[in-house]
Amino acid sequence: MSSQDIPEENLPAEQDAHGEASVADDKDPFADPGLPPHEHRIQDIDERAAKRSERAVAFLFTVSMLATVGFIASYVAIDADKSVYIFPLGHISALNFALGMTLGVSLFCIGAGAVHWARTLMSDEEVAEERHAVQSPPEVKAKVLADFADGARESAIGRRKLVRNTMFGALALFPLSGVILLRDLGPLPGTKLRHTRWSKGKLLVNMNTNEPLRPSDVAVGSLTFCKPEGLEEHDHDFQVEIAKAALMIVRIQPDNIKDKRELEWSHEGIVAYSKICTHVGCPISLYEQQTHHALCPCHQSTFDLSDGARVIFGPAGHALPQLRIGVNDEGYLEALGDFDEPVGPAFWERG
């Protein structure tokens, strides 16, 4: 059925730029039907109904705030290994269920509150306006600012203080859900990066034989890897501790040691340095006995073990830390303390 078959009085009217109605004809059978007459909502004419909507919106925003607090409390209080039975889901993680529910409720209530506010309290009158050039004259800019002020006034954000304040509270509190997730990055390291298992009196134990070393066990030009006494591979924290305490010892003729402190901290030419590269923490495993150079196989950082283990090539930022050693009454090599600086790569707290 075409528009010609419809009685003229039943055809949809069209509003022009000034809101005047026009009728479709043979030349333009698909005229814009225009905007329907504006119908007032109950909230527009009854302040009690508007107050009820205001309280409903505030309630939703308040529930969102409480759900966000519940999210944070669940994250802190519920053990990650705890499970609960939820019908019909079965046994599921209590933590995941609590986090999902509280986060979902928080987001839903913010969205539902905003939608209910827009549908019941904000102005819903449609306004048609012609398009204009991108560059606006001063009078148009002034009109835009006036329209913005009208929109702010019609949104009732200034008059509906309860809605405004609870919305701000919900939006301000919700981001805490993301901030609290940073807790999964782990506890703060404190001073753990500055200390290892080495301490005064700890014997140097050969990593291969698991036996303490005597000076006679270390030949000139050899490279031996050691761990502190009492650190065993079956310990639950072995990997964490050995990553900081791994030690390499070499024996150099005392006359070939260039660094004065290195000579003082050695024993009969036996020097002990951290095995952990100061670039990205790779284990150093290559040693050239003629040049006394230790090479990291990851990025070729090279350290001169006869000159304070200073960096002579590669991206490493500083020398390897040296461990001061001596011999106990039984003739075994022992540490005379911990490293005097953090081992491994630099970190921002290092001072």
Automatic annotation (TrEMBL):
This is Cytochrome bc1 complex Rieske iron-sulfur subunit. It is found in: Cell membrane. InterPro entries: QcrA_N (IPR045603), Rieske_2Fe-2S (IPR017941), Rieske_2Fe-2S_sf (IPR036922), Rieske_Fe-S_prot (IPR014349). PROSITE patterns: RIESKE. Residues 1-39 are annotated as: Disordered. The chain crosses the membrane at residues 57-78, 98-118, 162-182. It is a multi-pass membrane protein. Keywords: 2Fe-2S, Cell membrane, Disulfide bond, Electron transport, Iron, Iron-sulfur, Membrane, Metal-binding, Oxidoreductase, Respiratory chain, Transmembrane, Transmembrane helix, Transport. Iron-sulfur subunit of the cytochrome bc1 complex, an essential component of the respiratory electron transport chain required for ATP synthesis. The bc1 complex catalyzes the oxidation of menaquinol and the reduction of cytochrome c in the respiratory chain. The bc1 complex operates through a Q-cycle mechanism that couples electron transfer to generation of the proton gradient that drives ATP synthesis. Signal peptide: none annotated. Its main location: membrane. SUPFAM superfamilies: ISP domain (SSF50022). Belongs to the Rieske iron-sulfur protein family. Residues 15-30 have a biased composition (Basic and acidic residues). Residues 239-334 form the Rieske domain.
